[in-house]
Amino acid sequence: MSAPAPGRLYGVGLGPGDPNLMTLRAVQVITDADVVAYHSARHGRSIARSIAAAHLRPDHIEEALVYPVTTGTTDHPGGYQGAMDDFYAACAERLAVHLDAGRTVAVISEGDPLFYGSYMHMHKRLAHRYPTEVIPGVTSVSAASARLGAPLVEGEEVLTILPGTLPEEELTARLAATDSAVVMKLGRTFPAVRGALEASGRLAEARYVERATMEGERTGHLADTDPESVPYFAVAVVPSRVAALPVGAPAAGQAVVPAEEEAAAVPTGEVVVVGTGPAGPLWLTPRRGARSPPPRTSSATPPTSTGCRTAPARSGTAPTTRSRPNAPSSPSTWRAGAAASPSSPAATPGSSPWPPPSWRPPPKARTGTSRYACCPGSPPPTPPPPAPGRRSATTTR
Predict the structure, then answer these.
(1) Beta strand pairing status for 159-163 and 320-322?
(2) Mean pLDDT of the region 365-370
(3) Which residue has the higher pLDDT, 374 or 31?
């Protein structure tokens, strides 16, 4: 007698917690499966099973995959990682017995199976041996955004998803370098996550979501959250900066609001040249401010205002440009449109020299072109010719 055809393996995403957010495909697969497997802690309770409970049949074969260690310690010779590797290998072989017998196995998991899900460890060990299908699910990231009613990203913004288990220094660098962010796996990591949000200047924006769509859901401002009350199933959300703009804020090409009104609504600052460090985002610093670099000679044309506000020059001072700090790089997302005047006023007799004689242009990039971070569409200031009798020097990194 020939051996039965191998069964099919399913990784089934159940969504963030509300059973009504399971997909129709997920319900169909669970209902038709011979075996339903789920992970749980040693107490035996499984959130995944509780979400899918209404679709389990009395004749389902249930495989509870109980973690040997979660937050405690282990005496395994390979430490925590060694204990988990052995556990996942043993679980995969348990499921392989059913698959070899021709049974259909559905491994259910909260959220999406391949998004920080335990199913992925079964997938890596079994998908090349048996027919496999993954059923995607709604992630806690989408659920948190929906419960807050706050868009995550818009236009060309960048969303960064971080595990709270990263070192605080790395969390700080990544939070400072992105537009929007979600930090997962809070619980014991909450104090470090809060510290990183504060150090990166993002704490005021951060929101807190606990058990999104589930019983006991809680939302609020992260800065007001008691660290002792934060469970593992909670996330920190730094939503879209575009969405945070006041209703009716001027788009590109429209008149800007008066400086006094803007200062009262949104903190302003001066950002011109931003160094990104020698080796990627881990080397960025949270502090991202710089003084405007005007041209070096009084004969150079002052910078044209395209997207930033050009403040009128006071007597004895040079014009300055002001823009919203940490503004998105996309021209469509800048708050201020073109300034009322086409260009800044030129230096007049009796005023300070334009530019200040102490200013020097920034060093050239590796490609040989200068890097200026001013308003989108603005040409970089033209450096003056070298003084007669002097050699010009090119500075490179």
Answers:
(1) unpaired
(2) 47
(3) 31
Place of tokens 């796996």: 185
Q: Which neighbouring-strand residues pair with 311?
A: 320
Would you say 210 and 216 are in contact if contact means Cβ atoms under 8 Å apart? yes
323 close to 266: Cβ distance less than 8 angstroms: no
Per the CB < 8 A criterion, the answer to whether 337 and 256 are in contact is yes
When pLDDT is cut at 50, 70 and 90, the band that residue 43 belongs to is confident
Of 166, 181, 193, 161, the closest CA to residue 237 belongs to 181
**Number of residues that make up the chain:** 397
Mean pLDDT across 139-168: 96
The residues, ordered by sequence, that sit 6+ positions from 77 with a Cβ below 8 Å of its Cβ are none
Contact call for residues 220 and 212 (beta carbons, < 8 A): no
Which CA distances in Å does 267 have to 196, 233, 237, 264? 21, 33, 21, 7
Confidence check: pLDDT of 166 > 50: yes
pTM: 0.62
